[in-house]
Specification:
about 475 residues; mainly alpha; 21 helices; globular
């Protein structure tokens, strides 16, 4: 219906995405399921995964079969850019809401949960890949088997974060543990992938020179990751004092959230482009740094959250469904069987491994299961890992396995978290995100004031001045 190769065409595509995600989100909310799940299903329905081959067209109308651009190089299309901003804002908002005291208390638990969440899925992935020599795996292609294991280690925290916010559990000790573990999981997964890639491509690395050669070595990658956290923390001290000064001089003004977003995007860029760490890790750390300035962080979070859940987050979750290329394309019986088994191993590895570690830290069985389920979602990190593995020699057909893993985990994670938290008698109503008891978007008082529906607060009076 609409072509996405022009500015106005993309605006029409956004209209379809926003309308369909909100419509499906409200329907899923009505039947007791998280709206996030409706967003993902909406992306599947309007994207090429179903109607692209069976009907010959999709509602968003991108030409041909260039849907792989969504998977490998999302930064080359406008929808991918909006999706990227969405996930960065989600992680930034999560960092703003982080309680540093609880983060410190959950440090050991989060680290061990993350380590187990990497180790067990990776071992299971390698073991399940060994019998499939006809697919280019097996003992003779051991590096491909290791790449499969590395793909299964990735965790996407964005979906879990959104569900926890919707349920009002993001600031609990368990919620903080899950988010922290997911961040650490991604860092460990990137290190593992870098080490494997460095060993597998040890010959080609000799063609690089200077700083690029240094970053291509597995030990260089580890040094760069450590350097990023050191630089981020040291710079964070200065940024924290700067925002405390801004908050005292110009409290509750728009310049504070604007400067905060600048810090978020700068940290994200430095993390991935300079230090080789996932950009979502940089966005989360930027939020954690600014969370030390409590009044400014609360004001910023209110402003960021409205824009995030109005435009960018729906696009991000819909893009997961849109990125699902046709399952019939390049699919064989053996590949389908392997993909199903790999998905099962990836889900079981996270639930069992992370859940058992959480149980060791005196969480009850329900909370331990929540920790495991919260860690099993996959998203953009799994796609990035798969893309790098394909560049290093893994057959590109295994992208179908990753897409299937993302879809299954993205659909099951919100459902299972909703069911598990539904058993919590002490559950509190949601305080953020995109829903309330009336199934409507939560709008903070500063935004409602512009609609004439809320009494001005001291913050908004200052803002009006």
């Amino acid at each position: 219906m609409f072509e996405g190769n022009s500015a106005l065409g993309f605006v029409a595509v956004l209209a379809v995405i926003l309308f369909s995600t909100k419509l499906l989100g409200l329907i899923f909310r009505k039947i007791g399921l998280p709206q996030v799940l409706g967003y993902i299903i909406a992306g599947i329905l309007i994207g090429p995964a179903i109607f692209g081959d069976f009907c010959g067209f999709t509602l968003i109308g991108f030409e041909g079969h260039d849907y792989n651009a969504f998977l490998v190089m999302p930064e080359e299309n406008a929808l991918g850019i909006f999706s990227k901003i969405g996930v960065l804002l989600l992680m930034f908002s999560t960092g703003l809401e982080t309680n540093l005291k609880e983060l410190k208390s959950a440090g050991l638990a989060s680290t061990l949960i993350a380590c187990t969440g990497v180790a067990i899925p990776m071992v299971l992935g390698i073991l399940i890949a060994l019998p499939f020599s006809e697919l280019g795996l097996g003992v003779t292609n051991i590096y491909n088997c290791i790449f499969i294991g590395a793909i299964l280690t990735a965790t996407s925290v964005a979906i879990t974060v959104s569900v926890l916010k919707e349920l009002g559990k993001i600031n609990t000790k368990l919620g903080t543990t899950i988010v922290s573990a997911a961040i650490i999981d991604d860092v460990i997964g990137i290190i593992v992938l870098s080490v494997i890639t460095g060993i597998a491509q040890s010959g080609s690395a000799s063609e690089l020179t200077g700083f690029e050669w240094f970053k291509a070595q597995w030990w260089g990658t580890i040094i760069m990751i450590v350097a990023f956290f050191a630089v981020a923390i040291l710079a964070g001290w200065g940024i924290s004092y700067l925002f405390k000064w801004l908050d005292k001089r110009w409290p509750a003004t728009h310049r504070i959230p604007v400067f905060s977003l600048a810090v978020c995007f700068l940290y994200s860029w430095l993390a991935e482009e300079v230090f080789g760490v996932a950009d979502i890790t940089g966005a989360f750390l930027a939020g954690v740094v600014l969370s030390t300035v409590h009044r400014a962080s609360e004001y910023t979070d209110k402003k960021v959250e409205v824009n995030t859940y109005t435009v960018f987050a729906p696009v991000f979750f819909a893009n997961i469904g849109i990125s699902s290329i046709s399952f019939a394309e390049g699919m064989s019986g053996w590949l389908f069987l392997f993909a199903v088994l790999a998905v099962l191993m990836g889900l079981i590895g996270k639930i069992v491994g992370c859940g058992l570690v959480a149980k060791c830290f005196k969480y009850n069985w329900r909370e331990s299961t929540i920790a495991g389920v919260g860690m099993m979602a996959r998203g953009e990190v799994a796609l990035i890992v798969t893309g790098k593995a394909v560049e290093s020699g893994l057959p590109s057909e295994f992208m179908i396995m990753t897409v299937l893993l993302i879809l299954v985990s993205s659909i099951l994670t919100p459902i299972l978290l909703k069911v598990l938290y539904g058993k919590d008698k002490n559950s509190v109503p949601p305080t953020g995100g995109f829903s309330d008891a009336d199934n409507k978007l939560v709008i903070d008082s500063s935004a409602a004031e512009h609609l004439g529906t809320a009494d001005p607060s001291p913050l908004t009076e200052k803002e009006n001045k």
